[in-house]
């Protein structure tokens, strides 16, 4: 499993933040957040199974497998509790992690994602796309969705960001991406778990997200007790790359809330 850990080799304070990338990307999609937060707290950034430097396992990779992989990595690193931040598919993996291991979650950030289960149409579409990736590779898909992953305006105005997004997609293994698509086609409805989230939570979405619109973010926000909502202007599906300063400001607010709560609990238990 490929990963970065800013706590390796030095003491880390202020808790642990785990950043979970989306499809079809890798851990480098969190480069701005690693720069912002890596010096102030422990940040763990994994490549998911089938992506980046992590082993490719063809077939079907359910969200539960991704979540258990992250739990195993945290066990390996000696991390008991963490704030988890996931974007798109990563957000669904974070919801699955919370379903499986609620006691290990100190805070949740759900970015540009949605909770509802797959529809019959979506099930067929994801499996058909997996077949296409295995047959044709990543290039055609990557070029066709670039201006949906980030806004068309940002493709033009932020060429370095657009280039980074395109490179991540092009270097992703078709077998790994297809396995994830087949797993997501089988995903459950996380709506019933949302009212049970009892830790600080933040929902983030790009104002112009073509895949998970603001309505999906409001759906999450309305069902998670006490959750915050940040709508990032001038961003699409990847606001952490398109508008990193605004994304990081919202994330920093959530992390401050988590830290204050953890401190209060420590005082109460001491």
TrEMBL record:
Annotated AB hydrolase-1 domain residues: 17-248
Keywords: Hydrolase
UniProt superkingdom: Bacteria
One of the record's GO molecular function terms: hydrolase activity
Key word Cytoplasm present: no
Name the record gives this protein: Alpha/beta hydrolase
Pfam families assigned to the protein according to its UniProt record, in alphabetical order: Abhydrolase_6
InterPro entries per the UniProt record, alphabetical: AB_hydrolase_1, AB_hydrolase_fold, AB_hydrolase_sf
């Amino acid at each position: 499993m490929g990963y970065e850990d800013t706590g390796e080799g030095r003491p880390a304070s202020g808790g642990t933040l785990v950043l979970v990338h989306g499809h079809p990307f890798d851990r480098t999609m969190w480069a701005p957040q690693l720069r912002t937060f890596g010096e102030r707290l422990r940040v763990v950034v994994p490549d998911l199974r089938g992506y980046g430097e992590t082993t490719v396992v063809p077939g079907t990779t359910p969200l539960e497998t991704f979540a258990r992989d992250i739990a195993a990595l945290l066990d390996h690193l000696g991390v008991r509790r963490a704030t988890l931040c996931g974007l798109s598919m990563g957000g669904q993996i974070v919801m699955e992690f919370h379903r499986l291991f609620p006691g290990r979650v100190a805070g949740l950030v759900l970015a540009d994602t949605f909770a509802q289960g797959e529809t019959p149409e979506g099930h067929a579409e994801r499996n058909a796309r997996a077949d296409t990736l295995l047959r044709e590779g990543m290039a055609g898909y990557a070029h066709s969705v670039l201006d949906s992953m980030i806004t068309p305006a940002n493709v033009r105005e932020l060429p370095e960001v657009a280039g980074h997004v395109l490179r991540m997609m092009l270097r992703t293994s078709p077998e790994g991406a297809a396995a994830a698509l087949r797993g997501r086609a089988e995903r459950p409805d996380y709506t019933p778990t949302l009212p049970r989230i009892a830790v600080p939570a933040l929902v983030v979405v790009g104002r112009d997200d073509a895949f998970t619109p603001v309505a999906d973010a409001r759906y999450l926000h309305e069902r998670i007790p006490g959750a915050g909502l940040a709508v990032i202007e001038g961003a699409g599906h990847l606001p952490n790359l398109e508008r990193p300063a605004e994304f990081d400001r919202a994330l920093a607010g959530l992390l401050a809330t988590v830290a204050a709560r953890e401190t209060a609990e420590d005082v109460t238990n001491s």
